[in-house]
């Protein structure tokens, strides 16, 4: 097979693995690694060292630099303090405990030198959002624990990468030199990495904030500058580039009034492409002999990581918190390793192999064993454990509402008043700001983006209401969440498009969702009614006031939206469902004012 054909094969397999992971609701890292092992050591189709030759090391280096920069862009220091003591402890005390205990255990169990053991410990402290989020969606732990796991993964991703880079820099600086010279080289690397990273972040932030680049060049310019700073830093001080781009991303993430949403979305897309191809290539370099060579000590080490290290980190981090024993037990079992561990370990191993470091070729197989074991084992067992402990969230009956406009906010407030979980998502910052003032949970950005899949909190939420005026985004969001929630749990307002061409431009799966509140109810109509003074009202149905009486009394002035039955289950009025609320139910509707006064049978 020619090199060109192999490159095309890697691209096709990368997308196929991502699609498969999306369909079976598993972290993409698993099918990617399995695919790499299949076409590499199993079938012998791909030998990356022959195909890429001298380009392998530079390509992996640049790819990891982009991955670390993209990951560090998500770290905002105020968010660490804003997500509770347990999260703060896990990403500080817990991370250090994990690093030290794994490093010590690796030294004694595997017989590695202290430097390699410390590096391995630093590489496997990271969980990461791309592996933890699919697991949380599958397990559905109670809200408190879901938030702890989610934010631990998001925050520890760049912090763990920074720790691994620092450990690696120290190892390289101390190779074959006296301790004093090693500390001087290490200090120089740290100084250059932090200075160049901070300076590059400030200059790029200034350029983006003042519009020095046209809009269509911002993403490409950012990528080019990141790679340029990485290369320049390495040229000035050997191996300082990874630290530089990590610090650069963190500094930009914490720069006030700097909008990084589009850059993040571009970097996420690029990272998906790089990670997919990178994992297949790296897995294809492995040899099953390497796994056999790890032997029984690796199994003991793996058990130590699962049953000793993680529980120890969780229990120490939980000191002073209100977590119960069973809460800590579940948290102790969920810590799958992910992208940063695999990508960075492969790069460091490559560099150390080239430097002639004995035992460096064992790092990647051991890291991959930890990744595959933690993801597979915990994916299969965490949900039964959560169910046994009584920590499964009740059926998700809340609503994600796409649109945070005035009308959507009124609907969300009326649902929230009846203890129905809601979350508003919008790409308009002013709408989000007003929703926050109304004390409504929000997500700022496109809810169908990769960033949303890793960061949006959907605890208790299992249905989507599309109530935005964005005709281009509405179909995308609807189709995206049909796969997430199920097609019967996605509802949108009729677009009002009546001409033949417009109706046939929409996918059939999207058109089936245009059933919210009735065929004649469009976004424009609801917005107009709200502007004219229509209010959300909750009206009880009783033995003496039936739904027929309700319809007769309010007539055309009412747009029934929801009905709450006696079990507080929410039923939606749609074009496909002829709801007949019974006595004991509650009708939530938008009701237009009457000149002679409001009906006496309604109550706020």
Automatic annotation (TrEMBL):
Does the entry feature the keyword Transmembrane, yes or no?
A: yes
Which keywords belong to this entry?
Antiport, Cell membrane, Ion transport, Membrane, Transmembrane, Transmembrane helix, Transport
Alphabetically, the GO molecular function entries are: antiporter activity
Enumerate the subcellular locations listed in this protein's record, separating them with semicolons.
Answer: Cell membrane
Q: Which residues form the Cation/H+ exchanger transmembrane domain?
A: 14-386
Protein's membrane topology:
Multi-pass membrane protein
Transmembrane regions? 6-22, 29-48, 54-75, 87-110, 116-136, 148-173, 185-204, 216-236, 270-288, 294-318, 330-350, 362-380
Provide the Gene Ontology terms for cellular component.
Answer: plasma membrane
Name the predominant localization.
membrane
Give a GO biological-process term. proton transmembrane transport
Write down the PANTHER family for this protein, in alphabetical order. NA(+)/H(+) ANTIPORTER 1, NA(+)_H(+) ANTIPORTER 2-RELATED
**UniProt name for this protein:** Sodium:proton exchanger
